[in-house]
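ENTRY TYPE: paired fold submission
RECORD: A
CONTENT: sequence, then structure tokens
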Amino acid sequence: MWWYYRPDGAYEKCRCCCCQQEFHPSHKRFLPFPLAGQNRNPNEVGNRLCLYDGGGNCPMLSLEHIVIFHAYDSMPQARYEQEIQHTYFGFHRTSPASAVGIAQEGFRISTTGRQMLGYGVYFARSFKGTERKARYSGALICAEIQMGNVLPVTYDTLDSVSNSNSWHQNFDTVYYYHQEEDRDEFCVKDPEQILKWIIIMDDDRLRRYGLHTAFENTFCGCI
């Protein structure tokens, strides 16, 4: 039941197969937020935590595993190293309506307003890292990203990439190594680098069906 959850906006009229919206090929699924790591109970059979503590040392880092077991760890994966990691997991926070739009049409680059790492699609190193940066809430996205040729920057070199696309000619990604490691973030120039994603929803549908308070005792057999 939980694995086939669909939020409001995923259907045009009703919940029949004919009314289901078409989704981007990189969109893997929606999941309701109670399935994410912070809601797991170590004393409940079938709902226990991962054996690894979430300090970036878990060897089972698939997209689904990170979302379900390590979504709210401050550092669910080791710090990015270009020589070792060709793909990397990125975390993005937005509104439920925007998340449905991303599921349907994919990500779009940011080109307006202040853009600290220049124009592109922004990701944090963890969902915790998005709390201080995102302008919206209600949906969390975990994505697997092809990093390509990466330009590393620190606080002292941010001016070389801010509010421009000057780095696009020679690099695919800007990675900001923050003084506080868990606050790292990065920006990719091309949405095609975003290989696949899962969206965690915290929308009104969860509350209407009682899914925000219980895993099993819901108002109906499916949602």
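RECORD: B
CONTENT: sequence, then structure tokens
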Amino acid sequence: MGLTIRAHWDGKVFVPDEPVDWPVDQPLEVELRPLTMDQQTWASLSIEERLRRVRAAAGRIAGPSIPDEALRRENLYEERI
């Protein structure tokens, strides 16, 4: 079972940034990787701000330009010989 968590160093120990569901006294291996500036910025945002940014990005994605006529049932399922 693998798990990735975010934590910070308080000068003495690593402290998880949120509760961790891990068995007590279960051995584990820790790999330390500093966050990039983008990851740090994203991690510091509230859930509402993250959702706003995702919705804004999704709004910039253009859908396929398929004419309405092409989506009519008779055009989708016509026999092709």
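NOTES ON RECORD B: The mean pLDDT is 83. DSSP finds three helices and two strands in the chain.
STATUS: closed
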